[in-house]
Amino acid sequence: MIRPIIAYGDPILKKKAAIININESNDLTSLIDDMWETMYNAKGVGIAAPQIGVSKSIFVADFSFFEEEENFKSEELINMQQVFINPEIISEAGEDFIYPEGCLSIPNISENVVRKSIIKIKFIDQFFVSHEMHCSGIIARVIQHEHDHLNGLLFTDKLSYKTRKLIKKELNLISNGDIDLNYDMKFCK
């Protein structure tokens, strides 16, 4: 089921997501299916549960969008389409990697964000199998971006004060629902 994406300004996007108790979690299948459907409908690369109004520690990402990128290393992935439950970034290393980021919760805005180029992450997949992997480049960036959502951080939080001030008007328009989109959003008014 396609769900509305929570827009910038909603408090759920600034809240730390709850860890999922996989022993008590009977069925995440419908949530995961909804996340995939919602993400693809909005033409996204990744989406975190808080972005569809569910404060749980899970995100999904489809890395196939970046297959042609110079720094894309598919051997780092378990699947091109990956589910990350209770992810934990263990380490961040390497050079600073600057790349323009956007967000389904902050449509029509893209800004350069600095992130580390290499990460090590551990997580549980949709089959409740634990994984630990090293990622670099664009894969690391997407994971860091979605992981931030689970900690109540948005890419705009990583921008300079000057840049945030320059986009403040656009952010207010998003928060107020005063934008044209080709996907459903839920606005906090």
Notes on the structure:
The protein is an alpha+beta fold and 189 residues long. It has a single domain (5-180), classed as Peptide deformylase (Peptide Deformylase, Alpha-Beta Complex), CATH 3.90.45. Helix content is 22%, strand content 32%. The chain has three helices and seven strands, in the order E-H-E-E-E-E-E-H-H-E. The protein has helices at residues 29-41, 137-150, 161-175, and strands spanning 5-6, 46-48, 58-62, 81-103, 106-124, 130-136, 185-186. The strands form two sheets. The chain has a five-stranded antiparallel β-sheet, sandwiched between helices. The protein is globular, with a radius of gyration of 16 Å. The model has no long low-confidence stretch (mean pLDDT 92).
| CATH domain topology | Peptide Deformylase
Q: Quick one: CATH class?
A: Alpha Beta
Structural class: alpha+beta
Unreliable runs, pLDDT <50, ≥5 residues? none
| Physical arrangement of strands within the biggest beta sheet | 2-3-4-5-6
Number of beta strands = 7
Distance from first to last alpha carbon: 24 Å
Average pLDDT confidence is 92
Q: Mind telling me the C-alpha Rg?
A: 16 Å
Give a quick set of tags describing it.
189 residues, alpha+beta, five-stranded antiparallel sheet
Structure, briefly:
The protein is an alpha+beta fold and 189 residues long.
